Every structure is written in C-alpha cells, then in structure tokens.
Amino acid sequence: MTPLHHRIRRDIESRIMSGEWRPGHRIPTEAEWMAAYACSRMTVNKALRSLVQSGLLESRKRAGTFVSAPRFHRAALEIPDIRAEVMEQGLSYRLDLLHRERRPATEEDKALLRIPDGELLAIQCRHFAEDLPYALEHRLINLSAVPEAADVDFSAEPPGSWLLAHVPWTEAEHRITAINADPATAKKLEAPENTACLALERWTWRGQERITYARQLYPGDRYALTAHFHA
Q: Where are the transmembrane segments (predicted)?
C-alpha cells in the first residue's frame, strides 16, 4: 500500500502537472491537508518538505507554501514524446515492448542512473512509425523516486509518454552520439548491420532525485534532429 505522505505528494504533483496550480499559486495549509487526509501534521510535513527539496514548492515565512516558478536547465533539446512526435508527422504509431524487469540496481545500472543503490524498472521497447522501427529505447526508472511506475506494464503506453504525463521534472541532461548498429541492434531496428544511428541519451531528475535514464537509437535514414535557437 502506498504510504500516505506519497499519496499527498502525488496529489500535489498532479495538480501542478495538470496546470490547475500555476507557479505562484498558494497551496492549502498543513491544517487543511490534515483535515482532507485525516492524518498527522508530521505526515503532511513530510510530503511538503520533499516537494520543497525537489524544487516544485517553495516555503515563504509567514506567507505559506507556493508552487515554484520553473527552474529548468535551458537546453537545445526539449524532452520529446516519441509517440506524439510520430503522430505529428501524420504516421501511425505502435509500441513493441521487448523487455520489462523490476530488479535491484546492478553496478552498471547505478553508473547509468547515477544512484548509489536501490530498485529500478528496466525497459526495452521499440517505437514504430507505420511499419518500420522508428527508435529502439533502453530505459531505467528509479523506483525510489517513482514507485508507482512499478504498477504500469508499459505494453500500451510508452514509458517516456507516461513519465512526462505523471512525473514533474526539474532538470535534464542530453548526450548525442553517432554509432554503427551492431548485429543485435540492427535486427531490432530492421536495418542492415553497421547502419549509422543517432544515439540520444537523457538523464532526468527532480531536485536531488534521479528519475530516469533513457538511451534511444534512431536509424540515421529515418530520423532528423532539429533544434531552434533564439538570440
């Protein structure tokens, strides 16, 4: 059963994500949360403190607790929703879940996700545009930060789409490299061996919490990366 302070936290996060509570909005007082959830002040304080530490809320002395203004790191790339990206091109989208495993983090997982320890969800899937693989995705989700992800099977909804819709983030880091597809990767992408691919790696976190690591491989002849810059 989900701890009560997690439920309060998710309630607040969902209101922020939906746009119901905009930056600068004053959220209910601790007493109001205590009444709404029939819980102790300690439980409410634990939920609010974690959101303040993650940067989603800010506490102002004698004024209350407010939704923070976004403090995202500026990047040339936004965090894409591959499903939306494909459909915006007028193409049909399909998800093929290849692997889903809940497990303790291995040493390699810890290095990739940049966490000291913990349990995670490891996912491998293919994103299709029409009848061709558009991208091959490997993803790790930190279950300490996103425990509810353990209950999602991701056979229908892409993990990236689900995370964007349900989990607020405050910072992201991208790394882009070019690789040649090895035989196993080429087979999954339905492309010739040594096909040139764009590898996009992304780390996303909320305050000090690491949320997810993703590595997406795109066949070079099926994908174009575009970024817009403003002076």
A: none
